[in-house]
Amino acid sequence: MMAQPVNDSTSDGGQLYEAADTDELDPGDFEDAAEEESPKVDGVALRPNTLIPERGITGFRNRSRAQTVVLVGEQKTGKTTLLAALYGLFCKGPIGDFEFVSSQTLYSFAERNHLAMLSPDRAAPATPRTSIAESVSYFHLKVRQGEVVSEMIISDRSGETFEAARVDTSLMDRLTELALADRICFLLDASRLTKIETRAAYRRIFRQTMRALIDNDVIPKTAKIEVLVTKIDRVSREKDGRDLLAEVTEYEEELIKEFGSKGLAFQIHRICALPRANVKLGFLGMNELVGRWALTPADSDISPQPVGDALRHIDRLPIVWS
Which domains does the chain have, with CATH numbers? Predict the structure, then answer.
């Protein structure tokens, strides 16, 4: 890809939420933004290459076989930064064994990356947050590994919306992207996880977010689940005599023990999308991330299955055919 591509409850069983969780919550405006008409040239509607809106995702999925990746995370956990990094890395060439083929949301990818690097005198890259007033929308990416071409669509949802659903579970039905998910990624901010001022509250909140989605049955049984530990560059060095990576490892083990005991199968991966606190660390885990996300869903077996001790002759036919 060239620089301008063309195309708690708490673990001890205590109170699940605190009053402070709702006091500072901004409910925002959940009204859908007005639809924009596609530009036309000689009467032909041109694809805007902006985000795929919620109203258009079903049609897109009917036309294209793609893996749907849902990013779950509260404010400033690195969702938008991760999307910007995907574009930036593909601008420089392949990511691992995967080459860029095309994207129907190329403009939005480029916009995220541009805003992350806009100010030349900025001490560190930064990206704008997705607004709570925006409904869910989707990025699209088509990649190639050898002769195999695969597509993925990645959800883009405001972190405040997940915060609201965690506190008020009646809002779970707003998270419509979860029902479409082939893969659900919970983003875990390693910086907040280890910062003395935030670690206690953040550890509790992250667990509550996972529990809220699992206990309210909004995660498809077939979806693969992973925890993405972001901002690893900020904890890659010791601070004030503390081994921050060891603290991250300890929390990861707590998550595996707690949710594994409930039968939840998931994997934990560490990534660094935009290294700044430790540039030598590089773009950690991005090659493997693209490899997981590019996995094409397996074909569903729609053949009729035999019925044991079938009473009707028509139900015995699959046994005869086999």
Answer: 19-24+41-299 (3.40.50.300)
